[in-house]
# Entry
Amino acid sequence: MDLVPPNTQADLRHVSAKSSEQRLSAFMHEVSGRALIMMESATKNTDIAMDLVQEAFISLYKAYSKKPTEEWYALFYTILNNKLYDWKRKEQRSAIPFSLFKKKNLDFEDDAPEEQIADDYHIDPAEILSQHMTINEIKEAIDKLPIRQQQAFMLRAWEGFSTKTTAEIMQCSEGSVKTHYYRATQALQQMLSYLSPYHQNKGMTDE
# Structure
């Protein structure tokens, strides 16, 4: 499992000697912004997203405060995703009257059978999240993805976790991660293609 994801900005050389509270504070400062965006995309509700992130930090500290800081990253996102799953299941149950009396599939959307897809991590996220796109445009596109695709894309492309670690965090197979990640990149490229210079130049030529 990855310890510190490649895309993190934290400098762990100076936090190992700090108290658990100081380490948690530094860790929260490092990951809370990205984690909040991930949960906002999944829940479509800022207040709920903040609650989930806060609960995940509390659970992390209670269960793993003695763990080295570098081990917190994967542990935190595993806890956070478990809390998201629990919230999603409760929402699905409460939205269906008499759900206790009928069989209901509570799996997340986009959990289709795995496809034989190569790990496309060589896709440069910069090609999708390029300088020609604003943060709001990017976030709006990610919000439209099914939850599992959001998770796979953000854990792989944004946090930089490996396929193996992402699968452990999402509690699915590596093949599922590859499928979700591939579908996410394809969908984002299609949704954001109108922002690329090539697309814009082509439109001017067609006129």
Residues 125-206 form a domain with the Arc Repressor Mutant, subunit A fold (CATH 1.10.10.10). The CA atoms of residues 22 and 50 lie 21 Å apart.
